[in-house]
Here is the input.
Amino acid sequence: MISTVSKLRTFAGKAPWGFSFFGAAAIFLATIVFTDGVGAGQIITTALTFGTMYVIVALGQMYVITAGPGNVDLSIPSTIALAGAVSMKIMDGNDALILWGLLAAIGVGIAVGCFNFALIRLLSIPPIIATLSASFLVQSASIAYGRGLRIRPPEAFAEFATGRIWGLPTLAIFALLLTVIGSVVLHRTVYGRSVTAIGQNQRAAGLAGVKVDRVRWTTYVICASLAALCGAVLAGFSGGSSLNMGEEYLLASIAVVVIGGSSVAGGQSNVAGLWGASLFMYLLVTMLNTFGVGAGIRMIMTGLMIVAIITIAGGPKPSRT
Amino acid sequence: MHERRADKHEFSEQGRPFHTRPHSMRLVDGSVPSRTSNLNAVNFNIKGNETMSKYYAALFAMTVSVLALSPAHADTSSKKIAFSNNYAGNTWRQAMLASWNDVTPKAVADGIVAAADVFTTAENQATEQAAQIQNLVLQGYDAIVVNAASPTALNGAIKEACDAGVVVVTFDGIATEPCAWRVTVDFKEIGYRQVKFLNDLHPEGGNLLEVRGLPGTSIDSQYHDGILAGVKDFPKFKVVSEVQGDWSPTVAQKAVASVLPSLPDIVGVVTQGEVGFGTAEAFKAAGRPIPTVFFGNSQAELAWWKENIDKNGYKSLSGSIPPGMSSMAFWVAQQILDGKKDIPKDLTVPFLAIDAAGLDAALASTPEGGVANINYTQDIAIEAIAAASKQ
Here is the structure.
């Protein structure tokens, strides 16, 4: 058993993203066997649609986690709620205002990101506490802003969010572009390399001339902006914004990053793995729903599966890469 | 279920005032909903003008009589009531707080009570709410209205409050501590009615999908029990799949989408909470015909329903606990402080049902993006208490 795990870990060490895809495929097959092949194509399409939301949010979370131990953004759910409400209100059901609504959402993200970093840097609050307390403030802001009312998206925006191109969800294509850009930025730009460098050793990176504060600031802003973008898209997708629509993205965003093969200690990231992990998370719920297990068992199974895949894929990592 | 339902019939045949008098319930916009013929729900219905003016006459007469014999008010004028709320992060809870803020300031201004303050916990944690209740006792409140984070975890704090002589009234999220009062609606009945409605619509029966609420809550299991009872009484229907919707449209949309590919034809989706719209969207996205989906009184659902009635005569029902239940709990607390100690610990108030006939009235009185609501008045509370005491 132990040798199997270590063999798997060796494989995981070579391709850390592989496991999430492997897990997603296994779960998909189990579901299809159970349904005798019924609905296979449709399961994939819905998985791509809903997995996309995870991917967008987790991309930002991955940047933050990569920036080193202790860095995490817990304000994502409330940012999603606020940005969703603001964008829907600005769009006001009017197709001509869609762009302004999206810009406003990203504006919300930038503001939240700056606020998060101000708490972390200026007041020297650990990120986990800073972003959690920021989330209370952001949540209160969205309650005060929208009074919990559900505002409907403009027709064209809802169509974009639920539409398909060549049978694939438009959102998935959009998110794929986003991850390609995210990957290039992370691996090919000075900023991206700096994020990884800081994550591996902040002091060394600083001594090597990386502007640590500026890089971390940008990272928190990128993360909150992507969460905000997800908020707008999610509101378009589900027919309106609501105060609690971001709730499930708190743990999901972290789980997707870790299952996707990024190191939770930072300094090592994996963009491709986000897709595998997002599909894994969604298909896991699909499988358990299809099997018809009750809520309690479903939660236990979800927990166990996540622990299992992290144990195999996570493993002990070399302290330096 | 049968025994219970027989009770209800007997109950309305006796002509209980709460259910038969037209003034017993007023909507926020001033229109008067009528009782449905059988069960304990308040219905939106459009009345002819003539009937309407009769209702107003009755309402006026009642108001006069209440004013004439209201000797008890002075007794609670020095009493302070607090509202301990565990969560504010959704549309329903916002409407619940709005109802409290619509009703209670006037009661304070009129000198009925001295204070009616709201305290919401930040994290929806039972431990935090227990500490909050202890603080409210120390601050000298005479009664605490509680929407509880857990049916059992607050019992200790509530018992301490009772021992300190504080009246505790729980509603919506109720607490099982025997010293507390519980104001709620018959969730089981809403579940049962959905299956019954389907039986009338599709006498040939068929497959059902059940969207459940938040696991582990008493509300979720009551709805579920009602649906089970319905399926037992109408065995042509079969629940082929159950998903967890958490009473949230986005969560439900995702959960329904996840099972749809593997499901056979579905004739109806039995639901709880405001998940109807998300459920219908999931069917649409899957390219399936939209079955009879039940609604939870949110404006988004009602607007969708209205659109589809115009398009294809879509038939459904909507029902939920009105957020204004907070104002009912407030008046119940005030009545207990007024010395009415014999009030039964469990008060079941009619749920708010909307049928096709009442849809326009409900839409007109519900804010865009909000939830259909009723604010309760003191005389409604007095009648509900009287009705429950006789039971």
